[in-house]
Each structure stands twice: as C-alpha cells, then as structure tokens.
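Exam revision sheet. Question 4 asks you to relate a sequence to its structure. Input first:
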Amino acid sequence: MDAAFSAEQDEIRRTLRELVAKRCGPDDVKAAARTPAGHDSALWSALAGRLGLPGLALPEAYGGVGCTATELALGCEELGRALVPSPLLATAVLAAPLVLALGTGRQRAGILSRVADGGLTAALAVPGAGLATALALVGDNGGDWAGGGRAGGVQARPVDGAWRLYGQAERVLAGHSAKLLVVAAHTGGFARSRTLLFLVREGARGMVRTRQTALDETRALARVELRDTEAELLGPDDASRVPAALEDVGDVAAAVLAAEAVGAADRALERTLEHVRRREQFGRPIGSFQAVKHRLADVYVQVQAARSAAYYAAWAAGAAESGGAAAERSGGLALAQGLEALRAAASEAVQLHGGTGFTWEHDAHLYVKRAAGDDLLFGPVHRLRARAAERAGLFAAAATEADGALAAGEAR
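Answer key, structure tokens:
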C-alpha cells in the first residue's frame, strides 16, 4: 500500500473543501436537511455537474470518472466534515454499484450514465431495519432478512410476464426523493426461496413513500410501501449472485462511511480546539489546563487511528475493484473505529463547550446525532467488531484452544 496521495486525489480534496467551506455552514446544513428533498438541490447540481462526484467511482464507459473507492472515500471525508446532506451515499455508494455488478447491459447503459451526471438519484430499499444485515456488515446475509417465504418483508411474484412487489421497507436512506429504487425482495415461497433485486421507478403505481422522523436529520430516511407495484428484475434471475454483490457493496460502503465519520470527527475536534483557545477561566484559556489537554489528546489519537483504518479499508476495496491483489475485507472494522472516534469527538465537544454545549440546538449536537444515527443504521459498533472477528476466524481459534485445554485437562 502506498500511503501517499496522488496529485489528482489531493485536488479532489482541495476542491471539495473549498466548496463545502463556502456553502455548507451549520445553518446551511440545517436548512438543507429541512427542505422537502432533504438536501440542497443547487449544491447537489454543483457536486454532480462541476465535480462529477456521483460518477467518481463509475467506469468511463458509463460516463463516470473511472476512479476507485479511495477517491470516493476522500470525497466523502470532506463532505463528512460539514455533515453535508446529499443523496451521494444512497446513490453512488449503495445503489449504483449494485446496478453495475448485477444489471444487464441495457440497464447499466440506461441508468449509470444518468447517475454519473447527477440527473438520477437512487436508493437501496431493504425490508425492515436490515440494511446492515443485507450488506453483510453485522452477520451473514444469506438468511431470510428479505422475507424468507413468510409474511413480512417484501414479496415478489411474476404476473403475466412482469414482476409485482408487495410489502414495505423502513429506514430507506434518501428513499422519499430517489427517482429509482433498488428493492430487495423475496420470491419463490418455501419451495424455491431466494432473494432478488428489483428496480422500481419514480411514480410507479402502488408505491407510497413517506419521509420518517430521524435522529440525524442530515440523513433523510423514508418508509417505502409497495402494493402490487410493477418492478423490473435487476439482471438475470440468478439469486446466487445477490449475496456476494451486496457484501462487496457493503465493504466499500463501510470504508466510505468510515472516512466520512473521520471527517466529521476531525471537524468536531477542530471546533472544540478553537473554543478552548478562546474561552477563559481564572484568567487563562481553558485549553491551557492539563486535564483539557489530555482529553483532547486522547480524541486526537483516536481520530488519527480511525483515519488510518479508513484509508486502508478504502485502498483495499479499491484494489479489489481494480483487479489487484485481493485484501481482507476491512470496511466493517474501519467503520466501527470511525464511529467510535466520532462519538468521542462529539462527546468532548459537548462537554468542553460548557453550558451552551449541552443545549440541543448547539452545532455540536449535529455530530452527536450523526454518530448515533449511523450506529443505529449501519451498526451497532459491537456487532461490526464481532463480524470482523468472525471473518478473521478469531472465534474459531478461541474455540479450538478451549477444546485443546479441556482435552488436556481430561487427559490428566
């Protein structure tokens, strides 16, 4: 792994940081999150048209830039610093890669070019609250999270040569405004139980979308209800490819989310440092007190460790995408570390801003809500770590050691 960034990568970061600094202050973020779309449409047009951010990791053949997950993670780190509300995560990180991995040639050509230029936003709709499970971040995704042949979830059935969906999905990221939904649905009943992905277009008959109240208002969530809604199967009728595709997308998404959390944690720490340098007690800045220095030093170390983990996870995902040497999936572990760093930085921001920091309206609470909201949506952290340990075989090794010790004891 080459830890140095290229000139192109540095330019992506610099350009985004300048744009975000001009147009995404805390008041701008709050105002954008409270619009019907849940984001600033003008800013999204600038990110898409001027910078090509939605197509950053899409192939050039479909109008993308042809970069990897590393560049996408660096871009999201800059957006994370200001907690910018946008459909980027739902569209470019979750939905578009699934179309690229599973879609037919016609579907790719018709969808990805519109995603790349920002004209089409998309979202991944997963039944219940199973997004982290579907992406294999907290457990194996080969189970019945999409319905499993029982009532609940989203069910799909073929009718007169077309597919019909029935059911609902909760907490769909950017699902209320997305022009295209990628819906995970169960079909085949008990006899041929399988999970497939379907495309549902904006305005489809029988689809009702309702924006839900969310702890983190910068992450717009929706309930999607499907009542005999016509849908298009994504790719061929081959359920064997779906879990692996979702797992691949989940690893990249976790790396990107980890970088975004690092950006948010870094900015929360910067704001706290600015405050403790200005705020005085007993005739001196509170940042000069040893106890405050120690607390902020601990957060700094946590943020830098999380940054290293996020960069490595993004590099590993990018290397796998570009056909390089396969590396272990480390996105989930990096995400756990990033969320912990963000929670620590946000907590210290609230504490060290004193009485004003405890008011719910203070800007520090935007970072508290982002940490808690992402933990609920993509975690929790302890399950992300448990999944990483399971993949690394740590539990199996511990069980083997325990069995060996028991056998040795019985032999005595």
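Marking note for examiners. The mean pLDDT is 90.
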